[in-house]
Structures are given as structure tokens and as C-alpha cells.
Amino acid sequence: MNNKKVILINSGNRCGKDTAAELLASRISELGKSVEIYSFASGLKEDVAKLLGTTVEELDLLKNKNETITVGNRTINTRSFIIEYSELVKSLTNKYFYANKGKGFVRNSKAEYIIIPDLRFKEEYEMFNVENTFFITIDSDLEDCSGENYLKDFMFDYTFKNESGSIETLKFDIENFLINEVI
Q: Are strands 133-140 and 158-162 parallel, antiparallel or unpaired?
């Protein structure tokens, strides 16, 4: 991964991962560094959208609205379908399938910093647990912050707080990270 720095963000759903990634990317860019945001789910969503004959944007709308879809004779929550599809692909190929896509993105990117705001699985953590990688988790008291956080017992370099949806605490933690690791 050369001199690139990779920042991976972990938390449950709707805890502020994407917000933190956008704020972090904006500040890193303001500091004159090149930055890109990549999501492990990007390739997965493209695959599922193709399979269903829709766009990634429409798939995201269905997922975020908690809509169901019908596939064959089965009706399923869109988020659950995406997760099942991912598990199927990984079982038919290898457990690192989507993590490998992320590694390829990082390798091919020209940016100095890559932010990946959807670190969820042990395989992703293992694959990126190398030099120049920062693992960040978000500690949130948001009521709807839940689910899919399989890395609660893993070691993180930093914890960002998202208290009551106030962006100020998150910005403060981001500034501390930047002072220690970027500036």
C-alpha cells in the first residue's frame, strides 16, 4: 500500500460512519492532502443492483427505507437480501472476496488517504491490519444506532463519539485524530 494511509471506520448502522468519513475527508483535503472514500459495499451493491435490474441509487433507497423486494417467490427485506447475497458470494469464492476488492481499490488509488467507512467484518480487519492503517470506531448514544457491528471486541486506534447526534463532539475527535496522525 506504499505510503498511503488507510482509515477504516467501524460502528453499527446509522451511528455516523458516513458523516465521520465525509467530515474527515473534507478536513484532510483542507490540509492539502489527497483523499478518497471507498466502501466495501460498493462492489456488492453494484453486483446486487445488476442482478435485480436496478441502479445502486435505487437499491440504496430501498435499503434505507427498509423496503422489501420479491425475488422469485420470496419476499425479503432489501438489506437482508444484500447481506445474504454477500454471504453466498463469499461462500462460493472466498471469505476475503469483498475485502480483496477494497485492497485493489487502495492499491490503484492515487490518493494519499483512503477512508473506508464500513468496516464490519473480521476478514476486512485482518486484511487491512498493516502499517499505515488506522482503525476508528464510533461510540454513539443514538437510539437507532444498531446492528451489524461484528468487531466490538477488536482493538481500535481511535474512538470518535457521536453524542445525541451533535456533530461538534465528532468534529472535536476528528481534529484530535488529525493533530496526532495527519498534521
A: parallel
- How many CB atoms sit inside 10 A of residue 171's CB? 15
pTM for the structure as a whole = 0.86
Q: CA–CA distance from 93 to each of 38, 88, 96, 99, 150 (Å)?
A: 22, 9, 8, 12, 21
Is 120 inside a domain boundary?
yes
All residue ranges of the chain with pLDDT < 70 are 1-2, 143-150, 165, 183
Decide: 8 and 134 in contact? Cβ < 8 Å.
yes
Domain containing residue 119: CATH number:
3.40.50.300
Q: Are residues 17 and 49 in the same domain?
A: no
Q: State what percent of residues in the chain have pLDDT above 70.
A: 93
Give the helix, strand, coil percentages of the chain, each rounded to 5.
Answer: 45, 20, 35
What pairs with residue 137 in β-bridges? 10, 159
Collapsed DSSP state (helix, strand, coil) of residue 160: strand
